[in-house]
Structure to design on (524 residues):
């Protein structure tokens, strides 16, 4: 039977999960997807994500792939999965891709958003999706600090202390901070992110915004390559994986009608 | 000791409550507020809302008042309450008002919003706040139907069957439907709303939008004064109490610095 590669674009609320990846304690998004795919296909497909998200982190556009011999066409997996997934995990798209497509190895970058609710009182309705901080921020100082972070750097100071990744060099292509009404919205784009990297950057930028660190301290922190120099790790619930980027060739959606693969 | 009237503007997620008002089964918003106020003031203030919201209905701007002899100034109740309220109930404002202010009797109208998510797949992140309907709608037909509803009418056909309210005449001053990306957003303003009135109107308008009823049927339904003629009651989770209106005189905020009352 023909083996097909299926790509999924996934939205999820991270609140009730231990993160994307299997963990001995707690239920992961990956695990829930595999359980549902087993019910649909009768096979036990391994679901490969573009990368992990931590416990409590949300996704609007996580990407994953799996292999199957199911007769279902690529786009049909969306409805089949949405019919049985728990309501805090939703498939936004499903499509068949060339066998060369790999959710992790084919990706070229990611876009994340971090949201701080910055006013004197919290929000009931948006509570699961923001970090509430009532203090006034110096946005200009925060923006000045971001200039040291953008570019290719060894981000060891912004990596979770327990992480054992050896090559900590990443390219941060965009770090934008905008005030939108009562929100401070951070957008990060880069070719890869270390464990907790964005949340430690946000935690450190918050200290700059509150005047506890000067913008220029960011350069020292970066050069120290020492997690202890940076600020606290911002809480998970303000972080969203917005989008995973792929080179056009990797998916070939623009080249031909993707449904012709099915 | 001096008796003071305190006004609250309250945001809440209705999901985990049996509604605004005390119920034998389940916890109400009103009850939670009174329990927290007892802890703050040592008194047992009765919290009077502008009106009820049903189980599962959300609020961005519910208004309530209570009487107290507490030494706390009006604006200080916001922080005191937010410090001990569960995180799905938030005080957006608190202020001292003239003794004549009454959250229910002084109000002149309300604004509600109902949100339908109208695309082929649901949302994980917005699931508690929308009614997901994937079918294509005829928005023009729905808008035509709304013309029969706006104005002063006996809305008996749009009242929960079990309700025993005798005077069902209300003035609906605004009923607007807009498409905003994947959402259909309904805005209702009026001088008062019967139990389930908005949810039955939304359920009936949905049937018009799906072609199951003609726009002109809305006139017949209204004139029949019979709940059985209208459509189904739309689910609670798409409904938000946005704002309660008061005549300027009722609050006198524009006349003098409200803090001078404290």
């Amino acid at each position: 039977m023909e083996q097909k590669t299926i790509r999924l674009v996934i939205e999820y609320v991270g609140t009730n999960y231990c993160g994307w990846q299997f963990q001995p304690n707690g239920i992961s998004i990956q695990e829930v997807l595999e359980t549902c795919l087993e019910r649909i296909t009768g096979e036990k497909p391994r679901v490969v994500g573009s990368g992990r998200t931590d416990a409590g982190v949300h996704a609007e556009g996580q990407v994953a792939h799996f292999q199957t011999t199911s007769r279902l066409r690529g786009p049909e997996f969306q409805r089949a999965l949405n019919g049985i997934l728990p309501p805090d995990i939703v498939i936004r798209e499903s499509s068949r891709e060339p066998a060369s497509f790999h959710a992790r190895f084919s990706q070229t970058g990611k876009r994340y958003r971090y949201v701080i609710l910055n006013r004197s009182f919290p929000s009931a309705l948006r509570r699961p999706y923001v970090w509430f901080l009532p203090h006034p921020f110096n946005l200009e100082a925060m923006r000045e600090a971001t200039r040291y972070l953008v570019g290719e750097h060894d981000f060891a100071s912004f990596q979770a202390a327990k992480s054992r990744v050896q090559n900590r060099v990443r390219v941060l292509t965009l770090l934008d901070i905008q005030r939108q009404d009562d929100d401070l919205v951070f957008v990060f784009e880069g070719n890869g992110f270390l464990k907790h990297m964005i949340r430690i950057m946000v935690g450190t930028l918050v200290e700059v915004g509150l005047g506890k660190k000067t913008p220029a301290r960011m350069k020292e922190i970066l050069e120290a390559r020492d997690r202890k120099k940076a600020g606290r790790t911002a809480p998970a619930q303000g972080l969203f994986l917005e989008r995973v980027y792929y080179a056009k060739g990797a998916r070939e959606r623009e080249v031909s009608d993707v449904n012709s693969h099915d």
In short: The first helix of chain B runs from residue 29 to 41. The longest strand of chain B covers residues 169-180.
